[in-house]
Amino acid sequence: MNARILACLVFLGALLVYKVTLHPGFFPGESARQVAVALFRAPNTTYVQRTVASKKDAPVVFDRRRQVRADESVQYDMQDGTMIQEHRMTLRTRYRVWSLVSSLFARHVPIGSLDARMNSLPAFFGALNAALLFALVRSLLLLLNFHISPLPANRRKTAATLAGLAAAVALSAAIPCWIAATRCLPHTFEIFLMLASGYLMLMSGIRHNEHLMFVAAFLLGIGLLEAEEGVWMAPLMLFFAARAIRTGGLGFTHGGVALLSGVVFGVMGYLIINWLGPHGGAGSPFMLPFREMTQTLRSMAGTLSGGWLRSAHMVVMACFVVLPLLATVAMLVWGDQDLTGVSTMLMLLTLLGTTTFALTGGSFSPWGAYRSSTILRLPCTLFLLAALVVGFLMGKGCLMAGGRILPDITRGNRRRGFPGDDDEGGESPLGRLIMGYLCVLLIATGAFNFREVMDWREPLAGKVAAETVRRLDGRRWVVADGMQGLLIRLHGRMAGKPVALLAFNDTPGRLPSAWQIEALLGDPAFAGLNAGRLRQMVQGTNPVSFVQALLTLAPRAEEHVLVLRDPDLWRRAGRRPLPDVIGFRGGQADGEAVVDWQGLLQEHHSFWDQVEELPALGPYAPVWIRGQRATVRKQLHDVGTCLADELARAGHTEDAQAALNRANRIKEEPLPSAQDIFY
To answer: Which residues contact 149 (CB under 8 A, 6 or more apart)?
Structure first.
C-alpha cells in the first residue's frame, strides 16, 4: 500500500480516538487560560519568582513555572531558623506562535461550539504528529537498511511500516500526549514543530534539496524559542540536520547555509511576533524573549546540577542515553565476531527495559514523576523519544524475524537464523519475541491510559460556570476567584453575554490600578458611587477589601452584582443574601424579600439533579482536580444551606430539611459504581 495512504489512515485513526475522548467543555486550569489568550488577546505570559533559603545548609528552590511559591518538598522539610526569601519577579513569554494560530482558529473558523472547536485544534495537531512520526520512522528505517539488509524490498517495507505504526501508537497513546491532544493545550503544536522539522530534514537528505532544509531549519528556529523543550531538543535536532546534509551530499555551501539561514530566519520571525504581541504592560517588550532564554538556561543548569531526581528530563536521559550508551560500550569491548549476537541482544534488552519503565512505570518513568506534581507540565517531548525507541525496536525485531509478521509454516524444518546471521531467509525467534512483547505492551498501555484519560475530566466547573451565565438575569458583574471567573467569562462569550469580574480574594487596603478604577466607576452599574469615599474605606484606618467597599457604597449593587461564594459580603454591606442556585443575590435587609420559594427550590433541585448525573471522579484523577471539584461542591453546599435557612424562616420546615439533606449529599464526592458495591 502507498506510504501516503498509510500515513493518512494513521492520521484519521488518531484523530478518531482523540475526538471520542475529547474533553467536554472547557478544562479548568492552563487549558482555559489558553482559550482566554486566544479570545481576549491576553498576553500568553507566566510569572516566575526565584526563591532561596537564607540558611547555608538549606536547599535551593529553583525556578518553577506557573507557580509563585516555594517547592512543597522544601517547605515541609524546613528546620528551625530557616527563612525563605523571595527575589524579584520575572515575566516569561511562551507559545507566541501557538497563540497566533489558536487566535486565528477561534475567531475566523466558526465551526461548532467554541469549547469543542478549541479542544479539537490540539487533537488535529496530535493526529498530525502521529502521521508525521509514522512517515519519519518508516522512511528512516528504509534508508538505513537499504544497503545493509539482505531481505527483499517488500519485507523491508513491512518491517518499516510496522516500526512506524508502533512509534505512532506509542506517541499517541502516551498519557501526556493524549491529555494534551484532548484539551486546548500547546504541547501537541510544540511536538508538531519538532516532527515537521525532522521529517523535512530527512526528505532534504533523500531528495538532495536544500530548500527543504531551509524550511526545516526555519521550523527549528521557531521551536527553539516557542517552548522550553525546544532548547533541550536543539542538540539532537542539529545533529540530525548535520547527518541529513552529509547523507544528501549538500555540503556546506548549500546545506549548511540553508540550515544556518533557516534557523536565523525562524528565530527572528519568532522575535518579531513576540515584540509585536501583547505583553500585559510588564517591562520592556524588547528584552522579554532574551529574559525568557536566560530563565530557560538557568533552569537547565539547576536541573543538571542538583535537581535531576525531581526532573523528568534527567530520568529519561538515564533511560534512553546512559543505559544504551553502556550497552554500546559493551558492544565495542566485545568486538569479537563470535560475541556480536550477545552484544546486540544486550543492547535490545536494555532498550526494552527502559522503554517499559518509560511507558508503564509508576515512580521511575517521567509520567510517574509528573503524576504527583501540582502543576500542569506535560513531558510530551520525553515520550517522543520513547516512541522513537519503540519504533527502532519494532523494526529491528521484524528484520530479525525475516520481515514477516507471522511465521512461515510452509518451510518445514528449515534452519532458523539468529542475530547476526546473513541468511536471507533466516527468522530469529528473538525478533518475533520482541515484536510480540511490544504489541502486548502497547495494547496494555493504551488500555490503561484510556482509563486514566477518562478520569482526567472535570465537567462540574464548566456546568456551574454555564449556569452562572444563564442566571445572571440582567447582571453583568460577578464576584468570583480567578479560575472560576475565567470559566464564566468563556461561557459568557459563548452565550453572547459580556461578563465583568470582581476579584473574590482581594487584599484589604489595596486598590486596583488607576485605569481599572476609572473603567469600573464609569460603568452604568455603579453610577452615583462616591470615588473619594471608596478610596477612604479601602485605605483608611480600618481598611476593607475593594469588593467589600464597592458593594457597601454602590447604591444599587444588588441589581448588578452576583456573589458566588461568600454571602457575608452582602451581610457586611447591609444587605440580605438570597440563594440563587450557584451563588447569592443581594436583597434589602430592612424589608421582606418577595421570593417564590417553591419555584426557587424547584430550580435548585433541577440543577442538583444535573450535578448528580455527572460521572464520579475516577481513582486516577489528580489531586488538584479533586481539590478544585471539592471547592465547587462546597460552594453549592453553602448555597443549599442558605436556601434551607430561608425556607425555615419562611415557614417551609419540611422543604428546608429536604433541601439541607440534598445539599449535604451534593457536598460529598460520590464514589465510582465499582467502589459503591464495597462501601
So the answer is: 156, 399
Q: Is the pLDDT of residue 66 over 70?
A: no
Summarised one tens digit per residue, pLDDT across range 145-162 is 876 778 888 888 999 999
Measured distance CA(377)–CA(156) in Å, rounded: 39
- DSSP secondary structure letters along 42-60: ---EEEEEEEEESSTTSPP
Rounded to whole angstroms, the Cα distance separating 419 from 431 reads 8
Give me 284's grid cell: 520592556
Q: What is the DSSP letter of 365?
A: S
For every residue of 262-292, DSSP letters joined together read HHHHHHHHHHHHHHHS--TT-S-TTTHHHHH
Q: What secondary structure letter does DSSP report for 321?
A: I
Question: pLDDT (tens digit, 9 = 90+) per residue, 305-362?
Answer: 655 455 555 555 555 555 555 555 555 555 444 444 555 665 666 667 666 666 665 4
Residue 657 has pLDDT above 90, yes or no: yes
Contacts 24+ apart (CB under 8 A), 208-213: 208/248, 208/249, 208/250, 209/248, 210/250, 210/254, 210/255, 210/257, 210/258, 211/258, 213/241, 213/244, 213/245, 213/250, 213/255, 213/258, 213/259, 213/262
- On the 0-12 / 13-18 / 19+ scale of CB atoms within 10 A, 422 is exposed
Domains of the chain, by residue range, sit at 45-93
Q: If you ran DSSP here, which 8-state letter would residue 320 be given? A: I
